[in-house]
Amino acid sequence: MNRREHREIVRRDRAANRGYLKSRVVLRGLRRAQLWRSRRGPLGRLGYLVSASVYKLVAEWMLGVEIPPSTRVGAGLRLRHGIGIVVNPASVIGEGVMIRQGVTIGNRRRDDDCPRIGDRVEIGAGAVIVGDIEIGAGARIGPGAVVVVDVPPGATVFLGGTEVRPPREPDRTAGADD
What's a GO biological-process term for it (predicted)? Predict the structure, then answer.
C-alpha cells in the first residue's frame, strides 16, 4: 500500500464514520498499522511494531474492537457502537460494510476457513458469521443471526440464520396502469 492509496482509504473511512469519534479512532489506528505492515525493511518492522502495539492497546483493550491489522478490509468500513467486535485475521471485508456491536466474524475449524464479506453488507448487532462462506454484496445480516451458509447478493438473513430471503424483485406492475 502506498501513501496515496492509504490517504484515499483513510479519507473514505473518515467520511463513512462522520460523527462517530470512536470508530474514527479505531480505523485510523488500523489503517496506520496496515500501512506500516506493508513496508519492508527494519524501519517498516519497527514502525509496525510501534503502531500495531498502540492500536492493540487502544482498539482492543480500551475500546473492545478486535480487527487485526493483517485482516483485508475495504475502504469505508463503518463501525457502529463498536464494543465487542471480533474479526479473524483471515476474514475478508469488502468496501462500505457496516458492522454493529457484538459481531463475530471468524473461522469454524481451520485457521483459514473464514468468511468473505462483499461490498455494502450491513451486519446487525450480535450477529455471528463463521466458516468458509461468502456474503454477497448488499446483503443484510439481521441482529443475532448465526450465519454458516453462503448468502446471495442483496439477500437478508434473519435471527438464527434459519431463513434467508432472496432480494426483492422490483415491482414491474407499478405504473403500468398510468
Answer: cysteine biosynthetic process from serine
